[in-house]
Amino acid sequence: MGTTQLETVPEPKYWHLKTVLSEALDSEFAVGEILPNERDLAARFGVARATLRQALEQLELEGRLQRRRGVGTTVAPPRMGVAVESDRGSWPGAAGEAWQAVDCELTAAPAEVARVLELPADEPVHTIRRNRVSNGQPVAAELVYVPAASVPDLTAIDAPSGPARARAVLRELDRLSLEGQDRAVELGSARADDAKSLDRLPGAPVLVVTTRFFAAGRTAAVSVATYRADTCRLTFGDAGGVEIHHGPGRQAS
Known about the structure:
The chain has 253 residues and is α+β, with helices and mostly antiparallel strands. It has 2 domains: 6-75, Winged helix-like DNA-binding domain superfamily/Winged helix DNA-binding domain (Arc Repressor Mutant, subunit A, Orthogonal Bundle); 100-244, 3-Layer(aba) Sandwich (Chorismate lyase). The chain is built from 6 helices and 10 strands. The protein has helices at residues 13-28, 38-45, 49-61, 111-116, 162-173, 192-198; strands spanning 65-68, 72-75, 100-108, 124-134, 137-146, 180-189, 205-215, 218-228, 234-236, 242-244. A 6-stranded antiparallel sheet has the order 3-4-5-8-7-6. A two-stranded antiparallel sheet has the order 1-2. The protein has a two-stranded antiparallel sheet with strand order 9-10. A hairpin with a 5-residue loop joins strand 9 and strand 10.
């Protein structure tokens, strides 16, 4: 068999540097320790700063490094475990969930969400913001979009705004008979608002879990949950749910 074009392509310089840096992290640095600045690292390894940045970004994506506001680049701790709810018979806000309601406002959903909900682009929906913390560290931020038609009995008396309003919307949503849900997971970059909630820098790698909830033959709600990619590792269970584990051989909590 002849040599393919791919086989003739040399290993990128940043990829080799990533391996060298990874070995240095194991032997020279402790968890939480701040790395030298880019100029010093580039000089030490004899590479351009652009090449160094590519290697550092890859290590951040793999969960070896963290970029922290006002601190710099530090060695990341082992990934902590949080479980993405895999009960496909429950609405958001079900008993026992680890999410904390932060706010709820009536505003237009993003265009792609409005299309999924089959709503006009300018029609306001209940937009619930929730956060999730594990061991005192923020690990995920979520937006739940609920059309007014899904919670027709909700009134301003239930709660005008804030966390109480969010819980009231979710209680009303739970009155519907859930017919099913589907979920998609993709890699993304933290937007400014998500980055602030997750204590990351804008553009940091994140895992986006989008869930559609079905009732009465239509999409009754959409959840977009953003997880820190440097913290979470996702695996798929036998039942089709998504679990996040601490690391090899350790069960999610």
